């Protein structure tokens, strides 16, 4: 079982990823709908028990 601090770190990384995603979309004239879809897809993966490395996801945005 993961500790509360582990979950808190995961939540922080998820928020950081979402912030980077929105910033990247804005800088590249992306639409809010595209960002929304991307967030939904990743959250669905997490909801199904998939492991997501948000640091890797952030690096893919740059």
Could you please describe the fold and organization of this structure?
There is one protein chain. The chain is an all-alpha fold and 62 residues long. The chain contains three helices and no strands. Helix 1 (4-27) runs antiparallel to helix 2 (32-47) and helix 1 (4-27) runs parallel beside helix 3 (54-61). The longest helix is centred in the N-terminal third of the chain and has 24 residues, at 4-27. The mean pLDDT is 82.
- Identify the overall geometry: globular
Secondary structure class reads mainly alpha
Average pLDDT confidence is 82
Sequence of secondary-structure elements:
HHH
Number of strands: 0
Instruction: Count up the helices.
Output: 3
Instruction: Report on the biggest sheet.
Output: none
Strand % is under 5%
Helical residue percent band: over 70%
Structural descriptors:
single chain, 62 residues, mainly alpha, 3 helices, globular
Sum this structure up briefly:
The chain is an all-alpha fold and 62 residues long.
Topology record:
Layout: H1 4-27, H2 32-47, H3 54-61
Helix pairs in contact: 1-2, 1-3
């Amino acid at each position: 079982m993961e500790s509360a601090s582990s979950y808190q770190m995961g939540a922080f990384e998820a928020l950081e990823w979402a912030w980077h995603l929105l910033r990247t979309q804005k800088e590249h004239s992306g639409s809010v709908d595209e960002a929304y879809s991307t967030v939904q897809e990743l959250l669905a993966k997490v909801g199904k028990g998939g492991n997501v490395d948000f640091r890797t996801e952030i690096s893919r945005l740059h």
